[in-house]
Amino acid sequence: MTALKRSRARTLAAASGLALCLALTACNSAADDDSGGSSAGGVNLDDCPDPGAVEKEIKDEITLGYSAPLSGPVAGVVEVSSRGFKARIEAANAAGGINGVPIKIEYLDDAFSPDKAKANVTQFIEKMDVDILNTFGAGQVGAMADDQNAACVPLLYPSSSDPKYLDMKNYPWTVQFLPSAAAETAVLVHLIQEKVPDAVVGVAENETASGKAQSEAFQEAAKEAGLEIKLVTSDTDPNAAATALKEAGATVVYHAGVVGTCGAFDTARGRIGYEPELVVAASNCANAAEYLASGDAADGVTILRYYKDPADPALKDDAAVKEYLDALGDADDPSNSITVAGWLQADLLVNTLQQAADSDAGLSQLGIIEAARDQDYASPILIDGIHWLSTSDRPAGVNGFEPISWSTAEKRFVSAGDVVPAK
Prior knowledge:
The chain is an alpha/beta fold. It is built from 14 helices and 16 strands. It has 2 domains: 233 residues, Rossmann fold (3-Layer(aba) Sandwich), CATH 3.40.50; 146 residues, Response regulator (Rossmann fold, 3-Layer(aba) Sandwich), CATH 3.40.50. A hairpin with a 2-residue loop joins strand 12 and strand 13. The chain is globular and about 60 Å long.
């Protein structure tokens, strides 16, 4: 076992102690110690078990350990997302990688179980010695975050937006992909007040960590805006949720759903003839297949988008869309929003790695996390005018959203308004 691998193995044994130390703010920090242990990215190398390993240049290949639900309830959705993610990584490698260093993805199945994700992160760090990590779901991020922060291994752009892990003081090595739940739901609340001034609002809440985080953020945004919520109910039984909201007289529904399960609620609404004036949903509820399966009941469901739609006729000559479609080749339904999101996740990663390689810290774990905390990137696949922003004191995320609504007639999402700045 190399010295680097030995240091990684020791890391997880100390993880709980380091996590407690961070929580109590009793560890060394730049504020306490003038020895220069902190970096421009806000991380403190004095908290790392082996600062030298974190600063070591990555030369042969960049290994990404991806804990993903390759089986279980959302496996199909992850497969759709992976088409875009893998295609962007393959395109980067075909272009020479990151200054000649290729990116390699190593997958472990977590079946959408946080416990399995926690076991996977142990294997990735202790046995596989990966350089960076990724995962799918807020519960999975929660299961991995303490260990990967204690080990100083970057967790970059997981499909999650849990506000807890936006806390850069306690989770400096974690940078999520999905929009801040607070930013997203604030825009949705404003949209509700604008479109349905006297709304009676109900919430259908998915019971996963992702769903609960979205629901809590929506409720907080509604409270701040003076928007009363009549009922919050679980969507575990979609029929019961739809019935309860209908009986409560909700004229507007917010669905704090999770991709792969969003359409079941719309189908249930249609089954009982429940037609609210407006249905808004979390931005991850973007899987076209679910809306198609829901038929007319899904017509008009509104979400927020920040990346381009390859199926939009107005974008047929857009250079980024052309590049994307060429890279996807004959993949099934390349215009699916989930596939585009996967491409964007990987594009953010490629840009971050390249920025690190060109920085003073170089292509190292330190350089990578510093780059991830220093972003103003207009990814070509983002809607024009929207940037990915990140600083050492601002959590990463897009700076705007476009409202879109599902059109049953066109079998795709269509614009429902201009780009709205995110707070």
